[in-house]
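Renewal narrative, Specific Aim 1. Our central claim is that a sequence can be written position by position from structural information alone. The example that follows is taken directly from our test logs and has not been curated for this report. It begins with the structure tokens describing the chain, in the order in which they were read.
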């Protein structure tokens, strides 16, 4: 099976200075993976000829396809075109078709073609021109010794149009890459090392054409299986079998597959089972509600929320008993149980959840340091609580506690209704 390797090269001081963010490489990586091309490296170099030429040589030694973005403008600091001409040892001349295209571009907009703009139609004679239908800088396709260099504008919408219309179809035709398919397994409520221990036997038995990557995130871990092969149907069947095999080992932590986040999966479950939800948030300040309502259609299952931040609001508006707060404090299991039960009753919902904690940096005690959070789930069958000990960072605590609440809903829902 022929593996096709690509290197992505972005050119421009402005990227190194952090003045703009390189979003091109991320988008290109996704598109290339979808056609079976493996990106092996992403490199950024500044506007310096010697460094650009060195980057060309290093990329050619590693990759079959080198995709270059940036440095195609009409000014003196745009060095990609002259560097490519030097690297491939050919002169630059005005390309008649490119000149017609750039002239028409300016004429259509009622602007005169300056000599500087005219020079954008000058291309290395050893390249094949790639038309830019939404800009003035043509792309360039070079071939030598079985390797391909493609130069495209750095402007994202120009690059994307050129990639989709011209570059990707031509790469497929030139290299006939194998199929590459990714399968994401989403988990929550377990750390990376604990998950790795649980699935170690499964991981060790993975076939050679399937690789596993651990992608930790707040509150969980994504497992990415990457399969390569000549037949897409065969590798999809292999992936389905692996998903079945991991269930006995880690099924309790798996909440979904591919790109759906936890709030989408929970929303779908509530909708299917015709259950409603209400929320009382103290330390998370509405972030749980934000995640839930970010899902289209959440109005069919989310009834509303309260943010009883202060003691008096917990008592007067939500109804937490004063003696509970006096005896145990706001950050305690008895208080969080009352909050979840009360918000469920107040909104007449099937499920109530609540949060209370010390997000930081202040408010801590010896018994309750920063990052101490209690969360609770309540329905007509049972009430479930969990104590979290998180970090010293306020925003991480808010976000992480909210993810734990969503996972608590997932794990606490009754099997039948």
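The sequence written for that structure reads:
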């Amino acid at each position: 099976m022929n593996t096709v390797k690509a290197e992505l090269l972005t050119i421009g001081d402005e990227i190194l200075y952090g003045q703009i963010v390189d979003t091109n490489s991320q988008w290109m990586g996704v598109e290339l993976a979808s056609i079976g091309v493996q990106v092996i490296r992403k490199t950024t170099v500044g506007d310096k000829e010697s460094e650009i030429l060195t980057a060309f040589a290093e990329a050619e030694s590693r990759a079959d396809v080198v995709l270059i973005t940036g440095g195609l403008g009409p000014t003196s600091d745009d060095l990609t075109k002259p560097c490519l001409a030097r690297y491939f040892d050919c002169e630059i001349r005005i390309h008649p078709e490119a000149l017609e295209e750039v002239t028409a571009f300016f004429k259509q907009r009622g602007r005169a073609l300056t000599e500087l703009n005219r020079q954008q139609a000058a291309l290395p004679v050893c390249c094949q021109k790639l038309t830019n239908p939404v800009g003035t800088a043509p792309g360039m396709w070079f071939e030598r010794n079985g390797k391909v260099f493609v130069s495209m504008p750095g402007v994202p919408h120009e690059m994307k149009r050129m990639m989709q219309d011209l570059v990707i179809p031509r790469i497929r035709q030139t290299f006939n890459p194998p199929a590459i398919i990714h399968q994401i397994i989403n988990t929550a409520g377990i750390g990376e090392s604990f998950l790795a221990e649980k699935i170690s036997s499964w991981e060790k038995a993975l076939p050679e054409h399937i690789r596993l990557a651990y992608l930790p995130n707040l509150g969980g871990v994504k497992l990415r299986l990457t399969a390569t092969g000549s037949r897409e149907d065969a590798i999809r069947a292999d992936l389905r079998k692996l998903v079945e095999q991991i269930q006995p080992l880690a099924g309790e932590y798996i909440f979904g597959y591919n790109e759906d986040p936890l709030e989408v999966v929970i929303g779908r479950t509530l909708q299917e089972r015709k259950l409603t939800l209400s929320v009382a948030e103290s330390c998370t300040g509405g972030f749980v509600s934000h995640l839930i309502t970010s899902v289209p259609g959440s109005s069919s299952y989310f009834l509303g929320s309260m943010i009883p931040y202060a003691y008096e609001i917990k008592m007067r508006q939500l109804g937490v008993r004063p003696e509970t707060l006096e005896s145990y404090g706001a950050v305690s299991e008895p208080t969080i149980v009352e909050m979840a039960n009360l918000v469920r009753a107040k909104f007449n919902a099937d499920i109530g959840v609540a949060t209370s904690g010390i997000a930081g940096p202040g408010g801590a005690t010896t018994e309750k340091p920063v990052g101490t959070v209690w969360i609770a789930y309540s329905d007509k069958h049972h009430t479930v609580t969990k104590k979290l000990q998180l970090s010293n960072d306020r925003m991480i605590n808010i976000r992480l506690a909210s993810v734990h609440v969503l996972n608590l809903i997932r794990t606490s829902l009754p099997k039948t209704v």
